[in-house]
Amino acid sequence: MPFDNMLKNIRRFTSLSPQEEKAFSALLSIRKVKRKEFLLREGAVCNFEWYVNQGCFRSFYVDKKGLEHNIYFAIEDWWVSDLYSRTVQEPSNVSIIALEDSEVIQIKQADLEAFMLEVPAMERFFRLSYQQSLVSQHLKNLRLLSMNGEERYIHFREKYPALAKRIPQKHIATFLGLTPEFFNTIHARVLRLK
């Protein structure tokens, strides 16, 4: 079944009956995304929640100087969206782009909301998922305040080894709040220590 991995992901936090899984699957569609293709562009309203079935994405913000700041990465078995834009139906401040040829499973916001009202177990899943996401963001903010650049990079490599191998270094640098030049110095030093 094309949605098996996604359903396994959902089962980590909650259980749906076979009928509920079937009803939920009927709301899903598969979307192929080419490398450098946008799932969401800044200024558009986000109307989907996406599950990464295959590939890699980055969510980023462009500041007034035109500099990109990476906020989030998503690989297989992760979810990606713009929760702000999707929830309040306002234009997004971020863009989401594929770093590799990818495939997502998508569900429309309206369908997801209706299904969560009908099936409280699904609302539980997303509540727990969002809580985990908020905790991760909170810890990232604390690391930005309490760790130096090298410590942040070492932590990133240890916590997300798959991302460290797949994400271009320039994107890791902005995610960690570092300039590319400083990141290159740190990266070289960390590799020498290994």
Strand content: 15-25%
Q: Specify the CATH homologous superfamily of the domain at 4-121.
A: Jelly Rolls
* CATH C-level class of the domain at 4-121: Mainly Beta
CATH architecture tag of the domain at 4-121: Sandwich
Number of helices: 9
Strand order of the largest sheet: 1-8-3-6
Structural class: alpha+beta
Query: What is the N-to-C order of secondary-structure elements (H for helix, E for strand)?
Result: HHEEEEEEHEEHHHHHH
Low-confidence stretches: none
Q: What do we call the CATH topology of the domain at 4-121?
A: Jelly Rolls
Number of strands: 8
From the alpha-carbon coordinates, what is the Rg to the nearest angstrom?
A: 18 Å
> Which shape, going by the Cα principal axes?
globular
Mean pLDDT: 93
Helix content: 40-55%
Describe the structure.
The protein is an alpha+beta fold and 194 residues long. It has a domain at 4-121: Jelly Rolls. The chain is built from nine helices and eight strands. The protein has helices at residues 4-11, 18-25, 83-88, 109-118, 120-146, 149-159, 161-166, 169-175, 180-193, and strands at 29-33, 38-40, 48-54, 56-62, 68-75, 79-80, 95-98, 102-108. The strands form two sheets. A four-stranded antiparallel β-sheet has the order 1-8-3-6. A four-stranded antiparallel β-sheet has the order 2-7-4-5. The mean pLDDT is 93. It comes from Niastella koreensis. This is Crp/Fnr family transcriptional regulator. Residues 31-116 form the Cyclic nucleotide-binding domain. It holds the Pfam family cNMP_binding.
